[in-house]
Predict the structure.
Amino acid sequence: ERSRAPQPTGSMAWMSGSTSSTTSTSTSTLSADLLGVADDVVDIIYGDTDVVVAGGGSHSGRSMRHASTVIFLAIKELKATALQLAARHWGVETNQVIYADGTFRNRSNGAGLDWFALAAVAGPQGLKLTKTNEMHTPVFPNGCAICEIEVDPETGFSRVTRYISVDDVGRVINPLIVDGQTHGSIATGVGQALWEECVIDPDSGQPLSGSLMDYTLPRADELPAFVTEVNEVPSPTNPLGVKSAGEGPTTASLAVVINAIVDALQEFGVRDIRMPATPFRVWQAIQDTRE
């Protein structure tokens, strides 16, 4: 991650080697909050090889953890640099300058400079800082899911009628995005559990499900309104306590969907069913117990 903030023009830019997978909104919100400025003055520049030293892809569930940590550390250093700059500008000791809500103030006379005024003091280049950080300690998001399914024994069709998920993703930076990721993650898992399958011709190796005409994806009318909650338990491995969101619910959904189907088929003696639990596979499992 690399930062350049703020500029005399009244904008702040964070440059990152990671690419965005919804983290751009969260990182700009986080940056603005830590700096005490409005969200709309923060620009996030991802994956631009003209300005970044190294790239690392989206990092999947690690993106926010890596980005939030390096932004937090960069802003901490930037504040220290800015305090020294303000002290030199006013001709006072650093301990005579205080910072609060995006403004640096002189204790002796109450004079104040916000980030952009201070960037103008710094000159045409504004305030600039480069920060890199490596993280190798894993984090462990976790959760619990409950699924209710109705199975038609005559056709084998399974319909999810209720789904509840509670997830611990550590500190939540942007609740709306986390909730959206949770919903998408559940839908991904339900799709894999019930419909999605890569079918390959055993003789030719030719994919038989090579288009969405043959490969079934979950649709909105096949899923209920999910009930989701977040149980925030901050991780001790990074300054903001971030874990991971958007992946954990997928893991739980595979097991809970299949368990719900097996539970529904107990009266037929079905004890297990292989994913995806398509209508034909469920119907066949029922017929096998009747023979």
